[in-house]
Amino acid sequence: MKNNKQKKIDPRKNRDEVELNKPKKKMPSTDTKINVRSKKFWEELYDNEGEELEKYTL
Description:
single chain, mainly alpha, 2 helices
């Protein structure tokens, strides 16, 4: 025999779905990614910390 009762809707379930559908925040423009492959990055690093880096080279 089938049970004809309706299932109760859990309000917490709906809240979770709404949170999942929120758009993600964009990264602020002040936070920039550093490209470690760029020549400029390594030149600046060498200018700033060149003597410190030479201690660790062969």
